[in-house]
Amino acid sequence: MSTVAERLKVLQGHLKHGQQASYFDSPKRFRFTLDNPRLTEEQRIFYEHNGYIVFKNLVPHHLLDGWSQHFRDICDGKVGRGQMMMMKDISLLKSLKAKDADSVKGERLYNKIQDVMWDEEFFKYIALPEIVDIVKCFTGPNIMAIHTMVINKPPDTGSDTSRHPLHQDLHYFPIRPADHIVCSWTAMEQVTRENGCLVVLPGSHRGSLYPHEYPQWEGGVNFAYHGVVGFDGHGRVHLTMDKGDTVFFHPILIHGSGANRTEGFRKAISCHYAASECNYIDVKGTTQDNIATEVEAYAMKKNKTSVDYKEIFHIRARLVNGKEVNI
Question: I want to staple 161 with a disulfide (CB 3.0 to 4.6 A). Which of 104, 201, 219, 315 is the partner?
């Protein structure tokens, strides 16, 4: 049996298993959620089955409007970027002629700002009570923000380069256990299939962490947009969302996003949270070795100093609630 076929067989087994009532008759009924009245039993069961759950209109719209403007002000240089990392849309730049490259500025140039936990305006989202109260259901009371970003999916340049390949977020994190990590992802405006909504493979969170690599896409792919191989034809759910809707999902859940075929931008704000009781692990020699090597090389180029992958995440982590224990 081929490697791809083996992966699909394993994933199909997880999906089938998640539909069986006997799974919830086991001594440990809930693996992925903690006892907390913020989630109903129905919501917990949905997350256990699927690896994600959406809360409608969770984040106030006036806050999202303010953060959208704050993003644009940073891109325009009106607000300092501080310790945040500005990620350019490399695929867009490659598509432009050299003489046109300087004309792309501001919001159009940047498809993402990372490490927004160090910006006090964006940190209001990360520490928002409406978000944190739900995060506690997965992490417990001691919570660290380990990866934060504002995503600005640009209008596609014509070769589907604005899409994000199917991937698992745990690929990027030298932190375990995975079951005490959760992502919150909030639509800052309406998210549709036309402007590149998230797609998920329900139940895949009970699978393994698979190898990731750059997809061989015509037109190129943005920095660190690694993807899993062998799941492109598998059934998926498109998460169309209204402004303020927020999805929480497990770091092993396979997900991605489509191309933005509209003329506008598609913004979202996101944070990965981990229980501070989690531990850093050494990913050298594992399937995560490629991303660790790539990020360490980027850090060396930017800071002119060698930094270990675990240390990079230690530096980037910020306490959100409770107390620091290990991370």
Answer: 219
160 and 217 Cβ atoms separated by less than 8 Å: yes
DSSP codes, 69-114: HHHHHHHTTSS--TT-EEEE-HHHHHHS-HHHHTT--GGGTEEEEE
Segment 205-251, tens digit of pLDDT: 999 999 999 887 766 677 778 899 878 667 799 999 999 999 999 99
Between CA 93 and CA 106 the distance in angstroms is 13
Query: 116: which residues sit within 8 A by CB, 6+ positions away?
Result: 84, 122, 123, 126, 148, 149, 150, 269
Superfamily in which the 3-321 domain is placed by CATH: q2cbj1_9rhob like domain (2.60.120.620)
Spatial neighbors of 11 by CB under 8 A, at least 6 apart, are 201, 203, 204, 207, 231, 234, 254
Taking the whole predicted model, whether its pTM rises above 0.85 is answered as yes
State how far the alpha carbon of 288 is from the alpha carbons of 98, 164, 170, 210, in Å. Answer: 35, 18, 9, 9
Q: Could you tell me the two tokens for 297? A: 């090389």
Whether 181 and 278 have beta carbons less than 8 Å apart is answered as yes
The label of the residue with tokens 């990866």 reads 147
CA dist., res. 304 & res. 296, Å (int): 11
Give me the residue spans of the domains in the chain.
3-321
- CA neighbor of 121 nearest in space, from 201, 189, 65, 38: 65
pLDDT tens sequence across 58-113: 999 999 999 999 999 999 999 999 999 998 876 666 665 544 556 677 888 899 99
Handedness of CA 113, 119, 120, 124 (dihedral sign): positive
What stretches of 76-211 show up as alpha helix (H) in DSSP?
A: 90-95, 98-101, 120-126, 129-139
Pairing type for strands 255-257 and 164-167 reads antiparallel
